[in-house]
Amino acid sequence: MTAALEVRDLRVRFDTDTGPLDAVRGVSFSIAKGELLALVGESGSGKSVTALSIPQLLPPVRVSHPGGSIRVGGDEMIGASESVLRGVRGGRVGMIFQEPMTSLNPLQTIERQIGETLRLHQGLSGRALRDRVVELLDLVRLDAPRERLDSYPHQLSGGQRQRVMIAIAVANDPDLLIADEPTTALDVTIQAQILELVRDLRTRLGMAVLLITHDLTIVRRIADRVCVMHNGEIVEEGETAALFADPQHSYTRHLLASEPAGRPPARDPGAPMVIEASDVAVHFPIRKGILRRQVGAIKAVDGVSIAIRKGQTVGVVGESGSGKSTLGLALLRLRDSRGRIAFLGRPLNDLPPRDIHALRRQMQIVFQDPYSSLSPRMTVRQIVSEGLDIHGIGRPGDERRARVAELLHEVRLDPAMMDRYPHEFSGGQRQRISIARVLALKPDFVVLDEPTSALDLSIQAQIVELLRELQARHGLSYMFISHDLRVVRALCDEVIVMRKGTVVEQGSAAAIFEDAQHPYTRALIGASFDIVPSPPPNGDGRGATA
Amino acid sequence: MWAFIVRRLGGMLVTMFIISTLVFIITNVVPGSPAALILGEDRTPDQVAALNRELGLDRSVPVRYVQWLGDLLTGNFGTSYYNDNSVASVIAGRLEPTLILTVTAAILAVAIGIPLGIVAAVYQGTRLDYAAMVVALIGAALPNFWLGLLLILLFALYWSVFPAAGYVSVFDAPADSWRYLVLPAITLGASHAGVIARMARANLLEVMSADYLRTARSKGVRERQVILGHALRNSMIPTFGVVGVALALMIGGSIVTEAVFAIPGVGRLLIESVLRRDFPMIQGVILLIALLVALVNLAVDIVYAILDPRIRYE
Questions:
Q1: B231 near B208, Cβ under 8 Å?
Q2: What pLDDT sits at residue A83?
Q3: pLDDT per position as a tens digit, A400-421
Q4: What is the CATH number of domain B96-264?
Q5: Contact check, Cβ <8 Å, B215/A165
Q6: Which chain A residues touch B210 with a CB distance below 8 Å?
Q7: Is A36:A226 a contact under the CB 8 Å cutoff?
Q8: Which of A28, A200, B165, B260 has a C-alpha 20 to 30 A away from that of A183?
Q9: CA A136, CA A197: separation in Å to the nearest integer?
Q10: How confident is the model at residue B313 (pLDDT cuts 50, 70, 90)?
Q11: Which chain B positions have a beta carbon within 8 Å of A97's beta carbon?
């Protein structure tokens, strides 16, 4: 019996301005019919490049295969003609990608985008085409499929878009589904539903699945077999259970050990209160009509109370759109809000802008995206010392330079690199730069807005470690915003669970992780940790039945 | 959508009011008396005073302004100082050449600029790309009065392919009129064709790395269809904004082109009126140009909403 996919000694070379770069160096693996193989690795390991090579979707101008063979159902892909490849793409091989927000054409309806692949491969048209599209939407469990036909991608949520992508990928009954980080950009409860759908479709359609991911929880949950990739090579391969139980290669052990560990410092009920807010509300007006009268309001944050003591961390957990970031901005007075907010015992509500400006020094924020939150035109030294310049701390010149060096040292970056620009640093290093920038002002209170979610797992663990260490040394108070409960458990002593702007559950981290009361919290915990996913209450799509 | 259009039309009224005020102030504070100009060298102070009284120029500027604005609101644009004709009817008589010239030039700019930009983007980094961009740069860089003179020299004087100047209405002689349009339309459209080509190229290149093109390829769509069916329309949305700006600029830019080719349009009327200090006519023409530009902008916003389903004006 031929394998669904057989990759032998695959090499992929990128032709870069600085010379050839071997991204994949002799990778071999195969997937049997109906099997689910996970290809695991961190960013830059070559796993996505391997995946895109299969239907030869890498840009031909800059990419070459110095060697190797890719056989889909016995047919060679490397060197195959365009027309053969077009038959394979979307026909025998379906693909779904990481970014459901940008993977669909924003100007075409759902029906047209799913229909295109049916027209190309099966020559369907008219009624038959429409019926098949509805059937596919039903198959991927999008509710009210007939009414969705004329929807545009922007009218759907991330989870719904990913369902549409899956419908496109499986439209022509492929033998192989390549899923490249299909859930990374989604909220955890939606992730569970999408994985469930992939698993279900695999059995129902009898297709093999190649799952590319960096998330070991997902692998453990659904993969039959795992290949671990590192630096363009497969370093270990095995049955999922066996590999997790007894990893052989040092890199695999490193990956498995790098889930955020450790516990937050003990609670200290006697510590002074740093920030205390009650009944915070942020409403955005909805205006309609010729006169733009306010007809209602979006309640981004509605009646949330939060109190953080010196040296402690409160985790704010929730999915995108739950209002957790808005709450952070409101506490820092970067967003207008109602409700009382007091910082170190001083009410902030009626302070004039000048006094707020002075307080900014003591209240800082670290953002999620390490790639866009640092100015590309400033050196690391300029970025870190900007706050010192604004607040006139230290003498300009050598004194500030020395302070920047000290700060970089503290976040474990080489001070010799301070005159470089952000693009020369990796994501984790950039996040360290952001933290140094914040530390420069010796703040009391720091809002950490998903500071680890864009990072690889092992880097995440390092940043969490660094944050905890800095907190102990400087007595910092954190508000830690995240959707990742594993990181929250490692860092927070108190947790607030938000949904649609309101608090659904609030209490000590231990109590919530041990014995969550609200079904939504339980669904979040179930999706984050290695527990069989329980259906969340009315989530995305046909959530309850997924 | 309708609420949006109504609100925009309301905004246009405010804009037109501000422009009319500015136009009135500028025309009335520039030195030079219309009466003196009309009466010529042999005038007496009495004659000048009498004519000023007749034209209403003896009253103070604010009084004249209120009077003029009141007339505007009733649709009366005033009477020419020069020949007693109604401003509205004179402008109406001159509108056709300007509109036809501008629209032809715009079509030309789009028909040349967009394919040029697409070719350059699809063959990015090749000689074809460089050649297309050099052509675009030359088009964008040439001053249009100079290009007009050059075209007249080559195509009218040396080779006699097209007439050197003048205008024949399509409604009078359809077979002949296009020959009079070719050179002026190229003159007016060339620089915009260049700008549009560069924008079309940049926008298409930006779209070329979009994730949804990868999705299309993964469905087995032909490369040609990936570009024509998926990339192009997405890249056209920002490009279209440039086309709108170009059209608005061409309405104003037609003044120079009409002068070079002796086309009896609104632009030439404006120059004649300025030389004659024909205040009501100047004000009328500038208001008309401002109105056309505002309407073009509104049309651009409406077409945006048609092209892009994500834009829904409230």
A1: yes
A2: 92
A3: 899 999 999 999 999 988 899 9
A4: 1.10.3720.10
A5: yes
A6: 102
A7: no
A8: A28
A9: 13
A10: low
A11: 211, 214-215
Judged by phi (left if over 0) then psi (alpha if -120 to 50, else beta), residue A410 lies in alpha
Distance set, CA A497 to CA A322, A332, A477, B2, B245 (Å): 9, 20, 19, 42, 49
Q: pLDDT, tens digit, for every residue of B34-71?
A: 777 777 777 888 888 888 888 878 888 888 888 888 88
Provide the 10 A C-beta neighbour count for residue A453.
Answer: 15
Helices A250-257 and A457-474 pack at an angle, to 10 degrees, of 50
B217-276 pLDDT, tens digit each: 999 999 999 998 999 989 988 888 888 889 888 888 888 999 999 899 999 999 999 888
Residue B220 is nearest to which of A87, A97, A99, comparing CB atoms? Answer: A87
Can you give the pTM of this predicted structure?
Answer: 0.81
Kindly determine whether residue A102 and residue B212, on different chains, have CB atoms separated by under 8 Å: yes
Query: Taking all residues of chain A, what is their mean pLDDT, rounded to a whole number?
Result: 87
Residue with tokens 């500071």: A451
Question: Tokens 């005033």 belong to which residue?
Answer: B78
Cα A518 from Cα A314, distance rounded (Å): 19
- Count of H-run helices and E-run strands, chain B: 13, 0
Element (H, E) at B27: helix B2-29
B222 vs A contacts (CB less than 8 Å): 86
Residue with tokens 């306010």: A294
Where do we find the tokens 């003498």?
A395
Answer for the pair A509, A315: CB distance below 8 angstroms, yes or no: yes
Which of B2, B4, B206, B218 to mutate: most A Cβ within 10 Å? B218
The candidate with the shortest Cα–Cα distance to A281, out of A321, A341, A342, is A341
Tell me the sheet residues that pair with A449.
A481
As given in the structure block, the two tokens for residue A383 are 């970025």
Query: Whose CA is closest to A313, among A200, A148, A146, A468?
Result: A468
Q: Which of A105, A124, A165 would you mutate first to test chain B, the one with the most B CBs within 10 A? A: A105
Chain B partners within 8 Å of A185 (Cβ): none
Express each pLDDT in A103-140 by its tens digit: 999 999 999 999 999 999 999 999 999 999 999 999 99
Is A454 in contact with A463 (CB distance < 8 Å)? no
CA distances from A416 to A75, A381, A382, A408, A437 (A): 53, 10, 14, 9, 16
| B chain contacts of residue A91, beta-carbon cutoff 8 Å | 220
Q: Which positions ≥6 away from A88 have C-beta within 8 Å?
A: A55, A72, A75, A77, A80, B220
Contacts of A529 (CB under 8 A, 6+ apart): A217, A485, A486
Strand A494-499 versus strand A502-508 pairing type: antiparallel
| pLDDT at residue number A180 | 92
What are the b/e assignments for B125-158, b being 16+ CB within 10 Å?
A: eeeebeebbebbeebbebebeebbeebbeebbee
Residue in A186, A189, A158 with CA at minimum distance from that of residue A521 = A189
Rounded Cα gap, residues A109 and A233, in angstroms: 40
Write down the pLDDT at residue A545.
36
Distances (CA, A) of A175 to A71, A100, A107, A290: 12, 22, 30, 55
Instruction: Find the closest chain A residue to B207 by CA distance.
Output: A105
Residue of A487, A488, A530, A529 lying closest to A505 (CA atoms): A488
CB atoms within 10 A of CB B279: 24
Buried b (16+ CB within 10 A) or exposed e, B241-266: bbbbbbbbbbbbbbbbbbbbbebbbb
Give the contacts of B274 (CB within 8 A, at least 6 positions apart): B282
